[in-house]
Amino acid sequence: MAILWNSLILLFIVLVSLFLIRVLLFKTGLIYITNKWWRRFEDCFHVCQFFKVPEFSDGMQHNQLYRKVSVYLNSLTSMEDSDFTNLFTGKKSNEIVLGLDPNQVIEDDFLGAKVSWINERKLNRNTFVLKVRKADKRRILRPYLQHIHSVSDELEQIRKDLRLHINVRDDRDDGDHDDDDDNLRNGRWRSVPFTHPSTFETIAMETDLKNRVKSDLESFIKAKQYYHRLGRVWKRSFLLYGPSGTGKSSFVAAMANFLCYDVYDVDLSRVSSDSDLKMLLLQTTSKSVIVIEDLDRFLIGKSSTTALSLSGVLNFMDGILNTCCFEERVMVFTMNSKDQIDPAILRPGRIDVHIHFPLCDFSAFKTLASSCLGLKDHKLFPQVEEIFQNGASLSPAEMSELMIANRNSPSRALKTVITALQTDGDGRGSAAGRRLGDGGSRKSTDESSEHSGVLFSRDNTVKEFRKLYGLLRLKSHRNSPSLDSATAGHKDKSPSSDLASLQRDD
Ligand SMILES: Nc1ncnc2c1ncn2[C@@H]1O[C@H](COP(=O)(O)OP(=O)(O)OP(=O)(O)O)[C@@H](O)[C@H]1O
Ligand SMILES: [Mg+2]
Question: What is the model's pTM?
Answer without folding.
Answer: 0.62
